[in-house]
């Protein structure tokens, strides 16, 4: 994918204005609906690292720190 395409699709996954993320040893911490821009960029990073190292790279997503949803 060329830089123009990456720029175009990146704009579709922009970080919401005013959003402040927490980052700790377990990664980015916030509600899933606020992580679209993070997942897009981490996916790009995984692709680039995989191509550079010629190895399989993954992204792990968990919800272990989220409070239980209220009914």
From TrEMBL:
PROSITE patterns: PGM_PMM (PS00710). One of its GO terms (molecular function) is magnesium ion binding. It comes from the Eukaryota. One of its GO terms (biological process) is carbohydrate metabolic process. InterPro entries: A-D-PHexomutase_a/b/a-I/II/III, A-D-PHexomutase_CS. This is Phosphoglucomutase 3. It comes from Homo sapiens.
